[in-house]
Amino acid sequence: MGKLVLYGLDPSPPVRACKLTLDALNLQYEYKLVNLLAGENKTKEFKLKNPQHTVPMLEDEGRYIWESHAICAYLVRKYAKDDALYPKDFFKRAVVDQRMHFESAVLFQNCIRNIALPLFHRDETQVPRSKIDAIYEAYAFLEAFLGVELYLGGAGVTIADFSVVSSVSSLVGLAPIESKSYPGLSAWLSRMTGRHNYQTINGNGAQMLIDMFNAKITKIV
């Protein structure tokens, strides 16, 4: 196996999803921090590797892949001993894919990014109540997805859980999850946070993003 290098920064939920996958696969890798605020992702060298100049980015044997869901799926297909994290069964894989698309389009784009961009790029300090309501709407969908299952893809953990927990753990600082309202989601989050190395790999970075939000937000309007 060639050397794996993950480019990213810890507050980023997609980066943390990749780190959770790498850990679950017990893969050794180098982690290179990329300072987005300093423009380290917009250098000529970085853009040659990734024209979108985004993180996470994975380097494997001199080739580059970006977008967290693509990275997680690639890692499992290439390095996993079995298909537990990303099932080969067509239907089971479709369920995992749907959950990951939900994370990308709803949890990350509509919830996290929709709040973060005005705060960090337009220097706004107030968050409309409707954006918090959107988070709770997303929680309700996740509650329904889980149903009676332990994990989002069924009985066992998959890369969909890694992607979703990276975002949900970043949103709870803005919209706490009440066990009475979301019993399945609350229990799922407890299972995920209890995983080996969770705090180091995901929890600390999620708290960093929460702290960044709290430092900017003065009021929910």
Automatic annotation (TrEMBL):
GO MF terms held by the record: glutathione transferase activity
GST N-terminal domain span: 2-83
PROSITE patterns: GST_CTER (PS50405), GST_NTER (PS50404)
GO BP term, example: glutathione metabolic process
Residue ranges constituting the GST C-terminal domain according to the UniProt record: 89-220
Family per record: Belongs to the GST superfamily.
Quaternary assembly: Homodimer.
The name this protein goes by in its record: Glutathione S-transferase 1
Organism (species): Drosophila madeirensis
